[in-house]
Design brief:
With 392 residues, the protein is α+β, with helices and mostly antiparallel strands. It contains 11 helices and 18 strands. The chain has 2 domains: 252 residues, no CATH class; 128 residues, no CATH class. The radius of gyration is 24 Å and the shape is elongated.
Amino acid sequence: MKNQSLYVAKIAKNDEFYTQYYDIEKEITAYLEFNPNVFKGKTILLPCDDPEWSNFTKYFAQNFEKFGLKELISTSYAHNSKKYKYGYQPTLFETDSVKYDEKKTKTNGKIFTLSEDKTGDGKIDVNDLEWNYMEDDGDFRSNEVTELRNKSDVIITNPPFSLFREFLSWIMDVKKLFVIIGNKNCITYKEVFPLIKDNKMWVGSTPMSYDILFDVPKDFSKELIKNKKESSGYKIVDGVVKGRSQAIWLANIDHGRRHKPLDLMSMKDNLRFNKKLADKKTYDHYDNYDAIEVPFTELIPNDYEGVMGVPISFLDKYNPEQFEIIGTSDNGIIDDKYKITQGLRKKFVDDYYKAGGKGSYKEGNPTAGIYINGIATMAYKRLFIKHRKVVV
């Protein structure tokens, strides 16, 4: 029970990670470089946000005219509805306003809108943001925020990690452009992978190897600094605590890196020249899938016509004109014709043990991992891919 409580507390704190301005600017710039008019005349919704603190709101408000936006809408989630209730202090922006309501400040979400020059200074920017309390707590699943979703053209945010599946489903219910942040492991979720496979969503421009750091609530930051506690979930940079998560950007807005073809060698040349081929399992055929093992993206042979198992980091280099995604080993989402064992049925398991196999097979489990010569060899997930056109 104690471990479960700690886990729940950690998840709640991770939901309060705020994306840094630099990382937002870096990612959004890639879409603008590919299509400078991608946001022109569009209404952008920033749900799951905290407008007083959020860098998403600041970034798009400051670039409102540059991007040619029609309207910017940003909503926040009420303090009392959050799982992690750190010390609450309303901002001066709120308390100095005639709209300030002591009863609503903790129970109601807030909505910020930007569409015109309210200050009369001849430009539309962050100083022209208008705000009000929402009728409810600002949960993205509420009718109030859902109506905002329906009227918007683009949805951009860092949704609560604990609600990622629900949030993605909420987006996909309507045909909108989106850019969101999720955990790297979400790639093989059964709710996510089919979208990637069908090119309805892809990895953003920021490399998957990039360590995305997040701002965290001030009281939690003070606690970690006091105890000098740094872990895989947090990093102290120049005396400031930053949250860490195996996070990536996901989008259905195009960027240039996605169309850059991979320069690859033939299998023969890789075997002869590539130093990463020290692993003898490279190019071995799997027992339970009709595919070969390729442990590094750069080892993909340009002349192999069949299916190849590659790391999920391949999506960093995935060019949909060059490759086709067939499936994944983690959730069994792959056509049966590529499953040699058709889900590791009992006869296959019995035959392997009789032949001296050492794999920990699970009867009837299509997600039991990858096996080579009867042994479970993969600690990591694999994507199955094929060349759209083999280069000879």
